[in-house]
Amino acid sequence: MADLQQGTPITPQSIFHVASVSKQFAAIAVAGLAQDGKLSLDDDVRKHIPELPAEHPRYTVRQLMYHTAGVRDHWELLGYAGWRYPSDLFTNDDVMDILVRQKALNFNPGDEWIYSNGGYTLLAVIAERIAGKSLRALSDERIFKPLGMTRTHVHDDHTFVVPGRTAAYQEVNGVWKSSIPQFDTHGATSLFTTVEDLLKWQHNFETGQVYGKALLREAETSGVLNDGRSINYGYGVSVGTYRGTPALGHGGADAGYRADVVRFPAHGLDVAVACNFAAATPNVLSRGVADIVIGDKLAPAPVVEPKEVTGARAEAIAGTYRSSRSDLATVFRVREGKLVLGPMGPGFPVNAIDDSRIRMGGNEGVFVGPAGGAPVALRVLDGGKLADSLVRMAPFEPNRAALAQYVGDYWSDELRVSYRIEQGDSGLVVKTYKHGSFPMRPLYQDAFQAQRPGTIRFVRTGGKVTGFRVSGGRVRNVVFTRGTRP
Question: How far apart are CA 143 and CA 212, in angstroms?
Fold first, then answer.
């Protein structure tokens, strides 16, 4: 159903918010402006957005496209600052306001790949400044009208009435709840479209009608890090394989909307999936279509037999392993006799390859240490190359007196927000702005994990706690200093 309240059914002409599927449209629009000679993809981003902090290392427009610039993710930053996703109204001005206050990047540009919505908002700002018009108008002119995508637009005004638009939902304890984002931010998200229009866009990669085949091949080519590793990501396009054949596309998730587009160029198959239910899995559905339509031409689907880690081996591995790249830590625990991943709750089952190797998403984790004994480190391999090295940390179990040194108020200039650390009956609690209070679980010396904001690592001057820094999956080292707002 497109709308449960009105009883409106979904059709192929129904319009969906497709979230991060939007990214390839923004990136290729910028690449098109470069093709016209209006900028270079290797320009310093500050050439076009001079208000960004001058102290940041140089990073390029192309690195924004690849997510290798190190720009912090604006959704995490806004969440830390007290914005309530997805109910609050977000604009590109709001995103710019918080990005220009960031005192550091996540990493040295080109060294790593971390998905950044903030980087794609910067791309939209660059496109609009160079073109002298909104990304919506630019996309209408250069993409949507030429391809006959008549039911597609960049939704940069949340009050705009869209006939045929779907509502979106989540299920909470068996009850349907509305889950619709209030966004005027665009570039990283906010494309409104249909599956039929998405297929017209995907077919353009074959024909090159808009922007030409050379630019589109470049858009579907993986970027490369400073150390030579491929990132499997182009201009807003994920570059991968499925059952032995190239698979090029992108997924999207915002509030209750879910989407996926994927091309199988070797077989002439394009698939577009749009959903308006938070628990939907469009990437599974799109690959399921491929299994039906071209399955007889693909390699056999790999069979991965889950292998649990139990007993003495699980006990030996259990512990906290800190990344060499950030404050983030990977925590293994034994729960009901089995090794699980995650510091709190039920955790995730660990899928072992053998006694010393595990699967970590699309990567492989290799424990380092004496044979059969307790590991001292965990090496993460991406395509056989070292992506990160995690060191096993000593247990950190502070008593009540030791916890008292962390209690107090802390202020962040980067977020313009104050947090308070309090001592509860069972440990520390972080009281955040507008999001409530969350227990803090000790990770390693001076570091704690909370459901929100994430990893909190206290810093000291002369042995005294003078502040902390916050890190999450897409944001590192946001600074808080001890004391109230200046």
Answer: 12
Taking a C-beta distance cutoff of 8 angstroms, is the pair 166, 16 a contact?
Answer: yes
CA 198 → CA 18, 20, 150, 161, 454, distances in Å?
10, 13, 11, 21, 36
Cα–Cα distance, 388 to 470 (Å, whole number): 20
pTM above 0.70, yes or no: yes
Helix residue spans in 108-162 (DSSP H): 117-131, 135-139
Alpha-carbon span 177 to 341, nearest angstrom? 30
Q: Are the C-beta atoms of 31 and 211 separated by less than 8 Å?
A: yes
Percent composition of the chain: helix, strand, coil (DSSP 3-state, to 5): 25, 30, 45
Residue given tokens 């969440």 in the structure block: 79
Locus of tokens 């955040």: 432
Percentage of residues in the chain with pLDDT exceeding 70?
100
DSSP 182: -
- The answer on pLDDT for 112 being more than 90 is yes
Closest CA to 58 of 40, 43, 72, 79: 43
Q: What average pLDDT does this structure show over 399-404?
A: 96
Q: Contact at 8 Å (CB) between 470 and 455?
A: yes
Q: Using an 8 Å Cβ cutoff, are 152 and 144 in contact? A: yes
Tokens of 381: 């391999």
